[in-house]
Design brief:
Helix 1 crosses helix 5. Strands 1, 2, 3, 4, 5 and 6 form a six-stranded parallel beta sheet that branches. By secondary structure, the protein is α/β, with parallel strands linked by helices. Keywords: Flavoprotein, FMN, NAD, NADP, Oxidoreductase.
Length: 197
């Protein structure tokens, strides 16, 4: 008798980078996560969602209950996702203005972040962006976004050996493995929240 294993449900992950710089190490983390999700994890469909075109939050731009087209498109990407991967650099002990702006637009009624799983990765100097994680987690409480607790991923990008190449691509094998662990934890947590695991 042949036993057939049930296929793992596919989760849709929206990947957002808080840095707008093309050579950003945090964007490099997103590129690595996209690569890993395609090549070595079954059941994750990840899409990079660019936040750079979003206008600064201004409720005067909401006309007749409608959002500007760029904002509406962004909100739909978040709404259609099952979970979120944030790559968040740390600016002044917090997250970046572009990332906070994107979060605020998607939290305007009706909040499209609600009841989704999320994970954070970061790279930078010193603590590797770790302090931005705490502010993201605080925001998550209000917008009903549920972050995985472990594993945490924050990477000191300037500590030898080199972690990134000159174009901001992650080249460190140990860090790539750690990102894979984050993605697997996000996948498991997402399925658990959806009652599929």
């Amino acid at each position: 008798m042949e036993v057939v294993a049930a296929a793992k449900p596919v989760i849709n992950v929206a990947a957002l980078c808080g840095s707008l710089r093309k050579g950003s190490y945090n964007r490099g983390l997103i590129r690595t996560a996209l690569e890993i999700s395609k090549e070595s994890i079954n059941g994750i469909k990840m899409e990079y969602v660019d936040i750079s075109p979003l206008p600064m939050l201004n409720t005067d731009l909401e006309v007749d209950g409608k959002f500007p087209p760029l904002v509406e498109a962004f909100r739909n990407k978040i709404l259609e996702s099952d979970s979120i991967l944030f790559a968040s650099p740390e600016y002044n002990y917090s997250l970046t203005a572009p990332l906070k702006n994107a979060i605020d637009w998607a939290s305007r009624p009706p909040n499209v972040w609600g009841d989704k799983a999320a994970a954070i990765v970061s790279a930078g100097g010193g603590f590797g962006g770790a302090r931005s994680h705490y502010h993201l987690r605080q925001i998550g409480i209000y917008i009903d976004l549920h972050f995985i607790n472990k594993p945490e991923f924050y990477l000191n990008a300037f500590q030898p050996p080199a972690k990134f190449d000159s174009e901001g691509n992650l080249i460190d094998p140990a860090s790539k493995e750690r990102i894979k662990e984050v993605l697997l934890a996000l996948q498991a947590f997402t399925l658990r929240l959806q009652g599929k695991n």
